[in-house]
Write a structure and sequence with these properties.
By secondary structure, the protein is of the alpha/beta class. It is built from 14 helices and 12 strands. The chain is globular.
Length: 399
């Protein structure tokens, strides 16, 4: 067995299940789950119909590179969304469809990490998506956690990283908009990271899966490829971005996403994936093309989240240290007591489940930056989210 399997920690939801074990919530209150970031808005009916119309294509083995029309649709979307030059992305070189970003974010570390006499370093935000940590460990690398706190505006303080760490860094995971705080990295921060990558010769893997959920229709979050192009890195060297339809189009079960960027890295990742065997069924690809080509349903999605944030924050702001995120669908409030105790009490008295912040973090530089925070995913219906907010308020006022 790979000995590094023993270093993997239980997933946050396993810890949450154990935390709730033995507790009995009030039977009179229906359960409301704000713990898991699984979109629950309805998927577009035309997307489902497209999938059905192409079911006969299951008779064909899907290619690892995907069908050309899907790669073209992804490149067109990236160019339009981020204002890139029309000829800056080649569907034959700069993009690969993936089975959701989770598997690709994991697999990229297995592809890129090189053995060295000193342990290679993989840097990642803290709190973080646990796949980053597991990917590093199983690639025989050492995770290095970049704390994100209110003092850093929930963005890593890259200037605080010692040069000795950068010297051994092979891969940096970014997440913008962030999970859980929803912070969007400004262009100057992305430019600084791009310069560090060039100086110390490491790869940037930027998780952008929350990029299409933002409050201002006229101010979408900047992406890594956009920042690279503005900086003159028109070949996107050392840059890979990961995105999917899960949050954007409310189809997490479709398992459809992409990785795009540096042509040489994409070439090597394609080589790896031909052996790994993760491919998208052709009906999934056809439905994905339709989804990437439509923005109406995405705008409707944002409208629903804006309504939920406005209503929930109006209820919670008077009693809780909470704010509207730059993007994404999470609230990341600081709670008045220990986050695990808060989670247990809220469940036991109000039948509302949230996720303790410390389960999304590791202790680093003397702190666990997730402690005394909880993550609330506003993915349920507006009515359920409003009801949950009232129950949370009632619980807080009872403390």
């Amino acid at each position: 067995m790979n000995p590094n399997l023993d270093q993997l920690q239980p997933y946050p939801f396993e810890k949450l299940q154990a935390l709730k074990s033995g507790l009995t919530p009030p039977a009179a209150l229906s359960p409301i789950y704000l713990s898991i970031g699984a979109p629950k808005h309805a998927a577009p009916e035309w997307l489902k119909q497209t999938l059905i119309e192409h079911l006969d294509d299951i008779a064909h083995y899907p290619a690892t590179r995907g069908i050309p029309a899907l790669r073209e649709a992804i490149c067109t979307w990236l160019i339009q969304r981020y204002g890139l030059p029309a000829d800056s992305l080649d569907p034959e070189q700069h993009v690969l469809p993936v089975s959701g970003t989770r598997e690709a974010l994991f697999a990229i570390a297995q592809t890129l990490i090189q053995p060295t006499p000193a342990p290679p370093m993989v840097l990642m935000p803290n709190p973080f998506y646990q796949i980053y940590e597991g990917a590093a460990l199983l690639a025989h690398a050492q995770p290095y956690f970049l704390n994100t706190t209110a003092e850093t505006h929930f963005i890593p303080d890259f200037a605080a990283v010692p040069e000795s760490i950068w010297a051994h860094c092979q891969l940096l995971y970014l997440c913008t908009p962030g999970n859980p705080a929803g912070a969007v990295m400004p262009e100057e921060t992305l430019a600084h990271v791009l310069n560090l990558a060039e100086q110390y010769d490491f790869i940037i893997a930027c998780d952008e899966c929350y990029s299409e959920i933002y409050p201002d229709e006229h101010c979408p979050p900047m992406g890594l490829l956009q920042a690279a192009n503005n900086l003159g890195n028109t070949d996107y060297k050392r840059c890979l971005v990961f995105n999917s339809l899960s949050k954007r189009s409310n189809v997490p079960g479709l398992r459809s996403g992409f990785v795009a960027g540096d042509a040489e890295l994409i070439r090597r990742f394609h080589q790896y994936r031909t052996y790994q065997g993760c491919t998208l069924p052709v009906p999934t690809q056809k439905a994905s093309i339709a989804a990437w080509q439509d923005e109406t349903h995405v705008r409707d999605n944002r409208t629903q989240y804006r309504e939920k944030f406005a209503k929930v924050l109006a209820i919670l702001s008077p009693v809780l240290d909470v704010y509207e995120p730059d993007a994404g669908f999470y609230l990341w409030p600081k709670v008045p007591i220990d986050d695990t105790t808060f989670t247990q009490g809220l469940y036991q008295t109000q039948n509302v489940t949230v996720l303790p912040g410390q389960y999304l973090s590791r202790e680093a530089q003397g702190i666990n930056p997730g402690q005394q925070h909880v993550r609330m995913a506003l993915v349920a219906t507006t009515e359920e989210c409003v009801e949950a907010a009232h129950r949370i308020k009632h619980y807080i006022t009872s403390l």
